[in-house]
Known about the structure:
Largest sheet: none
Oligomer: single chain
Structural class: mainly alpha
Amino acid sequence: MKQRLILSLVLAAVFSAGYWTARSTQSPREEMQSARTREQLVADTIVFLEEELQKADGEHDRNRSPRSWATRDALRNKLDMLRASN
């Protein structure tokens, strides 16, 4: 019984402290602004997909397996869709 009472008090205190600090006006709640623009992210994604496609092409040349072909095809489709949307 004593343990339950102590546990309940500790949980209530932790909850209260969290609630109180979340409602505090002294701590800034602004989200960090991304320094990268959407165009930079798309360009980086295109570069990444091109590198992965080169790796997949090399793997497909070595293995000639259906899985490597599917991976290569999926990467090529993603890259084409990204280039078309940009």
